[in-house]
Amino acid sequence: MAKTVNAGARLDRLPISSFHYRVFWLVGAGMFFDGYDLYVAGGVLAAAIQTKFSTVPQNLQFLSLTFVGMTIGALITGFVGDAMGRRFTYQINLLVFGLASLAAAFAQTMDQLIVCRFIQGLGLGAEIVVGYSTLTEFVPPKSRGRWLSFLAFIVVAGFPVTAVLGYLIIPNFGWRPMFVIAGVGSLVVWYLRKNLPESPRWLESKGRDTEAEALMQSIEKEVGGTLPPPVVSAPVVQLTASSMVKPPILQRMIVGSWTLITINTLIFGFVIFLPQFFLRQGLTIAHSLAYTVVLSVASLVGCALGAWSSDAIGRRASIIGASVATIVFGYVYARFNAASDPTIVLSVGFVLIVAIYVQTAVLFGVYTTELFPTEIRLRANGICNTLGRAATVVSPFVVGYLMLHYKLPGVVWLMIGLVVVQIVVVWAWGVEPRNRTLEDVAVAES
User: What is the pTM of this model?
Assistant: First the structure.
């Protein structure tokens, strides 16, 4: 289909300006609370079980139904976002998440909390799909990796913030204030995000050229200055949903799905369980949360490193390099039964989490959203995220079984196996989007 607005080329030639920062922070503010609530479960569940508000089976159900909600939310959002727009979808999911968070704070039983958490999961799964995809369509190719990785940095910042707040709040005031913070913050962002513009790329892909042109002129006026002429890509055939089951998009679906299965399992089968791992080793809830605060700093270091490497050496090299580091340091962590030695916990564990979060920044934030063309971006990314989230539905039970029978080394060996397959898949079928326009990546062969 011939392009008449050339929204992609015109967006890519824009210099970085206040417009980009405004979009980044409107998207990023919501993503922060998404990240905050992703990690709140570790401290909340450890406290809930100590106060006998919950049991171990209920904790596993809490985690599993969170991921069921996220799985459903990711799938629905992909189709709604491609059909009705990025902006509309973004607002709905944040409202759902914010209201459910406030309801969770007032749950009277663990069963009520589990129901609220499922509804929260619907919003969480939606946010992660539409947030990264939306920013992908606004930022220029030369710095796209940094922008998206720093968006992942904001999401992951929820980890240390949750850990610090949990350390300060939970031992003194219980777990309920943690959900109040998430709910109030999300609703404030929901109100502010009414100023988020729709994606001109999406408008043009839907044939809404008049709206796309008006929005592009508004953006160009806001940026100001003399703009270079856009470099227009050759017209390409618009893809449909059926393209996702045909080469070369099929290979990209496999890459996106397996990498998200792997990184979701690393985070929600290992990182989120850190407080409970430490409690099993005899630490108090306060010491467990203190250890988690220290290790959570590594998540920010990993995201910052991913932000640099994704543009400096490329997406594939970053993923494969961090995967190798995960295998090496994961083996050391398991081999020496890290939780029994504070030195290894805070050194080898730190490097291991850095490696995991380099992958988090590149995979969640950058790579999977770049693999697909605009017209199917949210659907394809939503399906990949759905499969990734589906893995986390069962991972709490798998991790619980491994911890019971094989202790921490069993969990780490599961991580290593997934990462080995990830290296093979990315090396064999992954494309390299560094310094390339989204339109160019869309037509490249795998």
Answer: 0.86
